[in-house]
Amino acid sequence: MTVLLIYVAARAATTIMLLVLASVQGKNPWTAAQPSYWDYASIWDGTWYKIIAYWGYPSTLPIGTSGHVEQNAWAFLPGYPFLIRGLTTVTGVPWEYMTVFVSLVCGAGAALVFYKLMRLTLPQGTSMFAVLLFCIAPVSPMFQVAYAESMYLFLLMVALYLLVRRKYVWLFPVVLVMSFTRPSGLAFALALGFHIVHRWWIREREPFPLRERVLSIAVTVFSIVVGLLWTVIAWAATGYSQAYTETELAWRAAYIGYSHLVPFASWIQGGNWWLGVPTGAVVVVLLVLAFGLFMATRGVRRIALDLRLWVIAYALYLLAVFFPQSSIFRLLMPLFPLLGVVALPKSRIYRTIIVIVFLAAQWGWLLICWGVDGSDWTPP
Questions:
Q1: 150 inside domain
Q2: Which pLDDT tens digits describe the chain residue by residue (380 residues)?
Q3: CB 322 within 8 Å of CB 331
Q4: Secondary structure, 3-state, 129-196
Q5: In three state form, how does the secondary structure of the chain look?
Q6: pLDDT value at residue 261
Q7: 7 to 101, 156, 176, 193, 289: CA distances (angstroms)
Q8: Considering the domain boundaries, does residue 379 fall inside one?
Q9: Distance, CA of 364 to CA of 107 (rounded, Å)
Q10: Residue 249 domain-assigned (yes or no)
Q11: Which residues contact 27 (CB under 8 A, 6 or more apart)?
Q12: What is the pTM of this model?
């Protein structure tokens, strides 16, 4: 009950922030000036999800004057919009209301499972403070807007909890739905691979029965398959083998132009674009080193091992495929286990300062990424 009370209070605070921003929001590509909360919560990618829900995916890819694939619906997975469409069809509730409702419910579920994950290794008070940080995090408005993140985080938390509990059979349906909600199958497969290697390594002191070996390897292979399946579906529907990857690359074309996806090159490209050559590349290398050192600290070792393995796997996945721009803050949400580390100090002064910083950062993120200012290039 305490977790839900924290969640509700946090969402109320975010609602006030969104209403204030909506009251001064000018006319934009999605709404008229001073939109209602519901309309304001459905801008940006919410429009793409609505297009998918009611009109599906294009069988012919849009090609620009440059001859390259332009932005289109294939960049977004169908789990969230199809769920919303089904619920609106059954209930008659309008899209804008249902998206917020589903995101709120999934966010509440995520907060509850997050608390269980923290309690695996952390005391009750620390775990509850971690929940507070999770609920007021800078990108926590995602829990009440028309984005798939809330649904995805709930599924990811459930998947991680099942992994920690060695419930491999139940992972199959969760991984399937999760992989069609946000791109995650390959990252989770990597975490599963780390998990299997570790269990094999310690098998003498912690038995790794044959049944669990078979099931864990099977769910890893399954995660790889469903992680690649959307690429195959896009290919089959459009007749173009690179439909999905080139659609994703269209979003970075505004920064660095059109190019092929080279694993682990995107952050160097992005760093050099933002900070210049060679400063950008140097900063990226330093960030990677700092992250590695941080993951080796005593505080991080307080978190359950499987959660740490997930953090490493997901960080590697982002490093391999993502081009750093304003959406990076949202895409860092799956690193949520690290909030347990932030919550470790018990000083009241420290905790008060952290809460203030998180709320201020949430307001700053909304100003920079959610509010629309003319020809805006800082999408959430």
A1: yes
A2: 899 999 999 999 999 999 999 999 999 999 999 999 999 999 999 999 999 999 999 999 999 888 899 999 999 999 999 999 999 999 999 999 999 999 999 999 999 999 999 999 999 999 999 999 999 999 999 999 999 999 999 999 999 999 999 999 999 999 999 999 999 899 999 999 999 999 999 999 999 999 999 999 999 999 999 999 999 999 999 999 999 999 999 998 888 888 888 889 999 999 999 999 999 999 999 999 999 999 999 999 999 999 999 999 999 999 999 999 999 999 999 999 999 999 999 999 999 999 999 999 999 999 999 999 876 778 89
A3: yes
A4: HHHHHHHHCCCHHHHHCCCCHHHHHHHHHHHHHHHHCCCHHHHHHHHHHHHCCCCCHHHHHHHHHHHH
A5: CHHHHHHHHHHHHHHHHHHHHHHHCCCCCCCCCCCCHHHHCCCCHHHHHHHHHHHCCCCCCCECCCCCECCCHHHCCCHHHHHHHHHHHHHCCCHHHHHHHHHHHHHHHHHHHHHHHHCCCCCHHHHHHHHHHHHHCCCHHHHHCCCCHHHHHHHHHHHHHHHHCCCHHHHHHHHHHHHCCCCCHHHHHHHHHHHHHHHHHCCCCCCCCHHHHHHHHHHHHHHHHHHHHHHHHHHHHHCCCCHHHHHHHHCCHHHHCCCCCCCCCHHHHHHHHHHCCCHHHHHHHHHHHHHHHHHCCCCHHHCCHHHHHHHHHHHHHHHHHCCCCCCHHHHCHHHHHHHHHHCCCCCHHHHHHHHHHHHHHHHHHHHHHHCCCCCCCCCC
A6: 84
A7: 14, 18, 27, 33, 34
A8: no
A9: 21
A10: yes
A11: 33
A12: 0.97
Radius of gyration of the chain (CA): 21
Residue 129 lies in a domain: yes
Amino acid symbol at 158 = V
Beta bridge partners of 69: 63
- The domain tally of the chain equals 1
What are 251's two structure tokens? 């979003």
pLDDT for res 254: 82
CB count in 10 Å sphere of residue 299: 14
Question: How many of the other CB atoms lie within 10 Å of CB of 240?
Answer: 16
Name the residue range of residue 77's domain: 2-370
